[in-house]
C-alpha cells in the first residue's frame, strides 16, 4: 500500500476552535511530516496531554487549599473540626449523643454545608479578583443563610429517620419503690434512694402523709412506694410498701 492510500485509510484529523489540530491514527504509523500532519496533542497517551492534566489538577488543588485557609472558610473549617472531634468521641464511646441525636445531626450538617459554601464562595471571589474584608463577609453571610435553608430542608425527612431518646424526668420515678435514707419521714422532711430504669441511683426528697391510723412510720431502711410528685415543693409523696411486691426489683 502506497503512502497516499495509507494516509487516506489510517488518518483522521480535525481542527478545534482554538486552532489546534487533533487526530487519531490506525494501522501503520504515519509520519508527522507528511501533508503537514501535526503530532497529536492531548490525545490519550500523549505526554504533553498528561502533563497538562496533572498541572491543571495541581492548580485546582492549590486553589482549593488557599481558599480553605482564607477567611471566612478558615473560621467555618475550625467549627467543622470541632464537629468531627465530637463525632469521634461519640464513636469511641466517650460521649453519648442518643439523647440529642437530631440536634447533633442538624448542627453537623449545617456546619459542613456552611464550610463548603464558604470555600466555594472564596474560590469564586478569587477568580473574579474580588478580595478584601467586605466581599469575604458577604461570602460568610451567604454561606450561613444558604446552609441554614438547606439544613432545614434536609432535616424534615431526616428527623423521622433518627431515633430520639426521651430525656429522663422526675415523673419517671413515680410508681417505683424507694429505700428511706433518713431517720424519719414526715410532711416536712425525708430523703430516699431510688433506682431509675437504667439502673442508676438517685437520692430524692420524699414526704409522708399518714392519713390512716396505724400506718407504718417510715424510717431509715424502710421501703416505700413513690405515688406522686409535687412540682411546687419538688418532692415525692411516698407510702409504706412491701419490697416483695416491687415489680421492678431484680430477679433473684
Task: Kindly describe this structure.
This protein has helices at 3-10, 47-68, 73-92, 101-127, 133-158; strands spanning 11-15, 21-25, 177-180, 191-195, 201-207, 223-230, 235-240. It has 252 residues and is α+β, with helices and mostly antiparallel strands. The protein has three domains: 9-44, no CATH class; 57-158, no CATH class; 171-245, Nucleic acid-binding proteins (OB fold (Dihydrolipoamide Acetyltransferase, E2P)). The chain is rod-shaped and about 95 Å long.
Please describe the structure with a list of short key phrases separated by commas or semicolons.
252 residues, alpha+beta, OB fold (Dihydrolipoamide Acetyltransferase, E2P), 7 strands, 41% helix, 16% strand, disordered N terminus
How would you summarize the topology of this molecule?
Blueprint: H1 3-10, E1 11-15, E2 21-25, H2 47-68, H3 73-92, H4 101-127, H5 133-158, E3 177-180, E4 191-195, E5 201-207, E6 223-230, E7 235-240
Parallel strand pairs: 5-7
Antiparallel strand pairs: 1-2, 3-4, 3-6, 4-5, 6-7
The CA-CA distance between the termini, in Å, is 99 Å
Integer count of domains: 3
Overall SS class: alpha+beta
Which geometry do the CA atoms define? Answer: rod-shaped
Number of strands: 7
Write the element-wise H/E pattern from the N-terminal end onward. HEEHHHHEEEEE
Distinct helical segment count: 5
Beta percentage is: 15-25%
Query: What is the CA-based Rg, rounded?
Result: 37 Å
Q: What's the story with the biggest beta sheet?
A: 5 strands, mixed, barrel
Looking across the biggest beta sheet, what order are the strands in? 3-4-5-7-6
Q: Extract low-pLDDT stretches.
A: 1-48
What integer is the average pLDDT? 78
Give the % helix: 40-55%
